[in-house]
TrEMBL record:
It comes from the Bacteria. Transmembrane segments: none annotated. This is DeoR family transcriptional regulator. It comes from Pectinatus cerevisiiphilus. GO terms for molecular function: DNA binding; DNA-binding transcription factor activity. The lineage of its organism: Bacteria, Bacillati, Bacillota, Negativicutes, Selenomonadales. Keywords: DNA-binding, Transcription, Transcription regulation. InterPro entries: Carb_Metab_HTH_regulators, DeoR-like_C, DeoR_HTH, NagB/RpiA_transferase-like, Tscrpt_reg_HTH_DeoR_CS, WH-like_DNA-bd_sf, WH_DNA-bd_sf. Residues 3-58 form the HTH deoR-type domain.
Length: 246
């Protein structure tokens, strides 16, 4: 296959999948990994893809900014409600539940039924909602982030590490085979990573638009959590635990 043909094939794949690894491209193109890396470098220089560790992604899939909660609350509401409804079925009596900041986790709170569980969150708005609904609530303290209403920073990380959660529910800004679960800022990533490592079972709640997207900071690899989503992603994710609505 000529170089120009490989370039076109790589770009066609990225239109469909948003991101791909060097190893996968090597098999598809029947070319060495060294050749694929050179191709990626050329296309990255041309600005038609973004070179990332171990692979490449389409430019529109790389997100560097974080929208305010008020904006994200209006996006994909139907899908998020379906995901939240599936997630609440997993909570049992006596669970110690971690609920991460986020719009989908907020919808989970609205559908909670289990009163004989303890709910822990780093999101101030989540804590208020939980208390108003009569649930036993613990809020993780720290530096408050105005964009997401989340407690972050060293104090929040230290506080969350004191707990051993039986189950946890997390939001994410992106899900990628190459980058895992990602979020826009280091401070958000630190609290998410600390919490997910202290969960016996962890679930990431993400509508299907999050697949193939990458934001700047990784907080977990894909096999650290099950993914509850509204629609089956492409077959490249089949080895991970994907949970779809009943």
């Amino acid at each position: 296959m000529l170089a120009a043909q490989r370039y076109n094939k790589i770009l066609q794949i990225l239109k469909q999948r948003h991101s791909i690894t060097v190893t996968e491209l090597s098999k598809i193109l029947k070319a060495s990994e060294a050749t694929v890396r050179r191709d990626i470098n050329v296309l990255h220089t041309k600005g038609v893809l973004i070179k990332i560790y171990g692979g490449a992604m389409s430019p529109e899939s790389y997100l560097t900014t974080e929208e305010k909660v008020q904006i994200r609350e209006t996006v994909n509401i139907k899908q998020k409600m379906i995901i939240a409804a599936q997630a609440v079925k997993l909570i049992k009596a006596s669970d110690v539940v971690y609920i991460d900041a986020g719009t989908t986790t907020s919808l989970l709170i609205e559908q909670l039924q289990e009163k004989n569980a303890t709910y822990v969150t780093n999101d101030a708005s989540h804590a208020v909602k939980l208390m108003d609904l009569g649930f036993e609530t613990i809020i993780i303290g720290g530096n408050m982030k105005s964009v997401t209403y989340a407690a972050v920073g060293a104090l929040a990380v230290a506080n969350v590490q004191r707990y051993n959660f039986t189950i946890g529910f997390f939001g994410t800004n992106g899900i990628s085979l190459t980058a895992g679960f990602t979020t826009p800022t280091t401070e958000e990533a630190m609290i998410k990573e600390a919490a997910i490592r202290h969960c016996k079972k962890a679930y990431v709640l993400a509508d299907s638009s999050k697949f193939g997207k990458i934001t700047p900071v990784n907080f977990a690899v894909l096999n650290m959590a099950s993914i509850i989503t509204d629609k089956k992603p492409d077959d490249s994710y089949e080895k991970y635990n994907i949970i779809l609505p009943d």
